[in-house]
């Protein structure tokens, strides 16, 4: 801690991070041990966070992340979208296909930014807000690949999984704390051209660097 930082705020943020990392919640005693502070301090932190709906406590007294975090999370998408747009524009223009940034939303993949190429006669319509199961489509499959092979997920190619006659290529975002997603393109083709996969990986790295 430095003179410019708040110890109380730091502890409150640490509480939220600890709760976000568990599916079963934590008791006051468990939080006290992990934070290295007494139970009275933890009670005060939880009471304050509860007032803002950032934390809730179940009937057993275990603290969990509250729904207020979702309201804050909705504001993250515009910031992520803005950071990703330069790389997506470059990707769309280079490949001549619709480029997109997709983030995890529960069990679904959610397109939060889409850029269409300016010079092609036709391209796949792919809209911001489009959702699909993580298990279908290149964007979702790339995210799953990163979960299974975090060190070397590579890129993912699909054909006809979301739209008949459309191919997809996507690569996951790597090394971005708190963001799970992928960058990809979708095009009307029988097969994805060989250079598209590596180019998508480059774009994913550019977006990841912009978000760090």
UniProtKB/TrEMBL annotation:
Residues 68-212 form the IclR-ED domain. InterPro entries: ArsR-like_HTH, GAF-like_dom_sf, HTH_MetabolicPath_Reg, Tscrpt_reg_IclR_C, Tscrpt_reg_IclR_N, WH-like_DNA-bd_sf, WH_DNA-bd_sf. SMART domains: HTH_ICLR (SM00346). Pfam families: HTH_IclR, IclR_C. The keyword Transcription regulation applies. The keyword Transcription regulation applies. Keywords: DNA-binding, Transcription, Transcription regulation. PANTHER family: HELIX-TURN-HELIX TRANSCRIPTIONAL REGULATOR, ICLR FAMILY (PTHR30136), HTH-TYPE TRANSCRIPTIONAL REPRESSOR ALLR (PTHR30136:SF24). Residues 6-67 form the HTH iclR-type domain. PROSITE patterns: HTH_ICLR, ICLR_ED. This is HTH domain-containing protein. SUPFAM superfamilies: GAF domain-like (SSF55781), Winged helix' DNA-binding domain (SSF46785).
């Amino acid at each position: 801690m430095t003179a410019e930082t708040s110890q109380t705020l730091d502890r409150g943020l640490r509480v939220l991070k600890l709760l976000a990392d568990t599916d079963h919640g934590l008791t006051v005693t468990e939080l006290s041990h992990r934070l290295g502070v007494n139970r009275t301090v933890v009670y005060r932190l939880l009471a304050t966070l509860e007032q803002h709906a950032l934390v809730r406590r179940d009937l057993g007294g275990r603290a969990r992340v509250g729904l207020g975090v979702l309201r804050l999370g909705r504001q993250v998408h515009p910031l992520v979208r803005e950071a990703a747009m330069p790389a997506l524009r470059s990707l769309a223009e280079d490949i001549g296909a619709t480029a997109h940034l997709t983030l995890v939303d529960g069990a679904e993949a959610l397109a939060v930014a889409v850029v269409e190429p300016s010079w092609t006669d036709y391209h796949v319509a792919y809209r911001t807000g489009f959702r699909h199961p993580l298990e279908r489509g290149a964007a979702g499959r790339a995210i799953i690949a990163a979960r299974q092979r975090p060190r070397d997920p590579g890129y993912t190619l699909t054909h006809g999984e979301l739209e008949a006659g459309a191919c997809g290529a996507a690569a996951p975002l790597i090394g971005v704390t708190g963001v799970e997603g992928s960058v990809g393109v979708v095009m009307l083709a029988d097969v994805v051209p060989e250079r598209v996969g590596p180019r998508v990986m480059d774009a994913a790295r550019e977006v990841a660097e912009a978000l760090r």
